[in-house]
Description:
By secondary structure, this protein is mainly alpha-helical. The protein has helices at 9-37, 46-50, 70-74, 95-99, 105-118; strands spanning 52-57, 60-65.
Amino acid sequence: MAVTIKLNKQAIAMLEEAVNNSAKSAMDEVLADLKSSGTMPFDVGNMQNSETFVVSNENGASLVTGSPQAKRLYYHPEYNFQKDKNGNAGAKWFEPYIDGDKMNLAQEEFEKEFKKRSGV
């Protein structure tokens, strides 16, 4: 018994592109939600507006904060955070997306975008 498998390389490439673009779109949505929630510490806005961004690669997409103070601010809830620009500013601003009430946001956005882009 012989089995022949022919892969449709064009369809595979289309699905890979749909996955990568959907992942980027999902992370863009998380970033937009993070900014609108007003939970990141905000002085002049560099950490939130220019130092937090989406990075795409062949494995999907990641949300990155590249400012030097991000780690120190993230892990110290005892700091007295300014709340005049971001009313909910404080430490651990990403926790709702990890294990809180927004933990399904990225997955739901990815699924919605993937269905749209792939037709699956």
